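Hi support team,

I'm filing this because I wasn't sure whether my run with alpha-D-glucopyranose finished correctly. The job status page said complete, but I'd like someone to confirm that the output block is well-formed before I use it downstream. Pasting the exact inputs I used:
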Amino acid sequence: MKFPHAFLAFALGAVLAAGPARAVDLSMVSGDTGVGQKVLREILDQYEKKTGNKVTVVPMPPSTTDQFGQYRLWLAAGNSDIDVYQTDVIWAPQLASQLVDLTEATKDVVGAHFPQIIQSQTVDGKLVALPIFTDAPALYYRKDLLDKYGVKLPATWAELADTAKLVMDKERAAGNKDIWGFVFQGNAYEGLTCDALEWVMSNGGGQIVEPDGTISINNPKAAAALEMARGWVGTISPPGVLAYQEEESRGVWQTGNAVFMRNWPYAYSLGESEGSPIKGKFDVTTLPPGSGEGARPAATLGGWNLAVSKYSKNPDAAIELVKWIASPEMQKYRALNASYLPTIQALYDDADIARKQPVIPRWKEVFLNAVPRPSAQAKVRYNEVSSQFWTAVHKTISGEGTAADNLADLEVSLTKLKGAAW
Ligand code: GLC
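And here is everything the job wrote out:
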């Protein structure tokens, strides 16, 4: 439809006469780790200055599992106090019915993002969350210690365990009593699902539930992968690893007490920050493959998004806020200051990012090839699938029952959960 000039001039005049829109108070929840909360606040300060609106951040526990439990309760109760939720990449199908469809409002910006990430947040044709960063893990290693003992980067998980043991033993003998070989996320929560999916997949043991919906987890290669991890606990990994989430692993690593660490890219900028004991002493590489037929390196795909609650009293302002935080400028800010991987394609060719956070352009291929967790297959049952998986894994690595028995039980309970179809 074409409007006459006179009408446009009138409409514009009416908008201007109304003055700036009334300032709005918004609130969002975020459980970001590391410097994530601080960088988010800086981004919001810029937004407040520009718009006159106010944004309160309700901080959440860092565990995505705890956040999910809380968000589900709030949304089920129709809570209108929270306008914007920071959502994990796996949650879209489970929360979709309570989130605003962003398709129309974001059609001017979605094209700048990687299409597969937008796809992961699209449920039944509706875009339920706009991505703000993606995630794929790295194997962090102490360059200085590998050089000191003349050892190479491990080519398989088995070699990683051998190298970790060798360096740890020599360092301890040299008086470095607190050092461990390898830290990861062994707590019973979503993070363990990520780590264990990597062990299983990289050993040729499949991806728990395959893309066609088949439950594949009860197989000898998956069991062997979990037995391997059980062997690490108390030998190359501290017994406490069974309670570690991302930040506990980073705590041990960043104080200089681990040779290797599995973690997400956020730990890179923190390790390199002023005053960090390991600054200049480490690098990252990809996680290794298992051994034998079907072995291949595997990284679990992570990432975070922003969604607008259906119960928000200010959905339009909330959508504008989401677009601001997800914008190329703010993703660049987050990348430069916290080494988060952008979801905007062009930022992988950005010279400032490449200079300040060289891990980011290096990690483009890693996240593009990362393995998704089976949330698209399991749909609204994903959290239960994952919690049954991490429970079986946690039992195994804690020495309760064999991997083969625990995976056989898991298959039975997942089959029951699935019913006739996911
Ligand atoms: C990271 C990932 C997220 C994952 C979580 C597990 O935050 O981005 O996708 O679920 O770790 O702890």
